[in-house]
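Final report, closing paragraph on structural work. Over the funding period we assembled a curated collection of sequence-structure pairs, and we close with a single example.
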Amino acid sequence: MTGSRHPRYSWHGLLAAVLLWVSIPPPPVHAAQQAGGSEAEIEVQEADPEYPISGSILPCSTEPCSGIRLVDLRVRGSSKGDLGSGAFRLRLRDSAFLTAEIDADDRAFRLTTAKWEVAYRDTTRTQNLSLAYQDNRRRLRANALRGAREDRDSWLVGFDGSVRLSRDVEIIGSAFVDTDAGADAPSARILNSGSLGFRWQHATGWELQVKAVAERVKTAAGFELRRRAVEGEVVRQSGRTQMLGQVLYTRVMGPSAAFGREELAGRVRAELVLASHLRLEARGAYRVEIGLKDNHSAYGLSVVSYARRYRYARGGAAAPRVLDLTRAALDHGYDGRRLYGLESTRAIRDRLSLSPHRDDLAPLIEALYRATIADRNVPVLGLGIDRDDDALLGLETRSIDVLVGIPWPVAWPWQHNERAVRFVELQVRYTEGRINPGLRKPAWDVQLRAHLNRETLVWLAWLDALPTSLELATGTEPSARVQIGLAYAFGI
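Its predicted structure, as stored:
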C-alpha cells in the first residue's frame, strides 16, 4: 500500500518503537493484592477469558506505577498518504496521563490529573485551549477558541460545567462570548451564548437532562439573530428494554418576521432483548419547521445475535459497580457522575487511580474492571437497514449493514458459548445516495477487524464514500481508499 510507505508518515513506526521501549513494565501488581486480597480471590469472581494472543502484545501499566507507561496507542495508515494519523496516551507515574493525537490537519494534546485537565487542539481553522477542574461538588471548564477570519482573529471564550446538589442531581450551565463581535465573517457565527439546566441520575436505570439555551448569532450577510432553545434527554433501562429519547425546540427571531422560524426535532432509540442472545433496535429522528414541510427524517431497524447472553451497559454486572465506585469517589472528594460503557468506565477507573486515595478505592476499581470483563458482548450475526431524508440538502440515503463475526474459540456464528470472546469480524455497509432525481451514487464501507485480545485490535478497511457537497459542486468524486490500523488500549 502506498499510504503505509508514504515518507510523510514514516514517524508512525518510530513513534511506536520509542513508546514501546519507554513502557516496559515491572511484573504486574493487582489492586486486590494491594488491598489485602489475593489473585485467587479475583479469579473466583470471573476467570480471565482466553484470547488468540494471551496478554498484551504491547506492555501495559500497573498500579502503583513507576516511570512512564504506554496505555493507549492508535495508528492508522491509508492508501492516500494524507489521511494517516496517530495517537498515544502515556501514564506518568501515579501523577497524570499525557495524551497526543496527530494527523495531517489536527493536533491535540491533553494532560490529565485526578482533578485537573489542560488541553490544546490546533486544526487548520481553529485553535482551542481549555482548563478543567472537578471535585465532588463542581465540574468546571474554561475554554478559549480562536477561529481564523479573513484578516483578523476572533476568540470565543467562556466556561461550562456543573454544580452538584446531591448524589443524584446537578445544575449544568455554560456561557460563551465572541471577543470581536463587530467584525464581519464569511459564515454565520455565535456572538454570545448561555445555557442553564439540570441533570438527574437515579441508580443505574434512569437519567434525565433538561437545558435552556439563549444565543445571539450573526449571519454571513451581517444580520443578527436571536435563538432560544429547550433541550431534553431521557434514558431508561429496565430488564430487557432500554430507551433513549431526545427533543429540541428552537425559536429564531431576527430584525424582521422574514427571519423568524420555529423548529421541533426529536430522536428516539428503543432496544429490546428478544431472547437472551438476540437484540432488536429501532431508531428514528425527525425535524420539522413548524408551519412548513418536514426538514429531515431518519429511521432504522437492526437485529443482532450474540455468542454470549447480551448485557446492557446499564444493566449488566458493571452497572452497580459504577454506582458503588462513583459514590465512594464523592465521599473522597472526587467527581461522582455515573457513566457507562467500556470507554467511560475505563476513564473513571483511570482517573481515580491517580488519586491519593487509590488504595482505599482499589477494591472497587478492580471489581468494576472484572465486571466489565464479565459483561463483554460478542456479536456474531447482524443486519441493519437505515433511511435518511434531508429536504434542506436535497439528499436521500439508504443503507444496509451486515455483520458476521467468528468468536474465539472458533465456532460457527450461530452457536452460543458463554466463554466466547470477540475475534474476527467482517462488517459491510452499502449506502446509496440520491442527490437529485435520476442521480444515484453507491458507496461501500468494508471492514475486517481482528481482536487479538481484549486490549488489542487490528483492522483493514476498504472505503468508497459518497461525494461531499464541494465534490458535487466541482464535478469530482472521491476515490476509494484502503485503510489499515492498530489500536491498543490497556484496561479496556
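Residues 1-46 have pLDDT under 50 and may be disordered. The radius of gyration is 24 Å. We thank the funder for supporting this effort.
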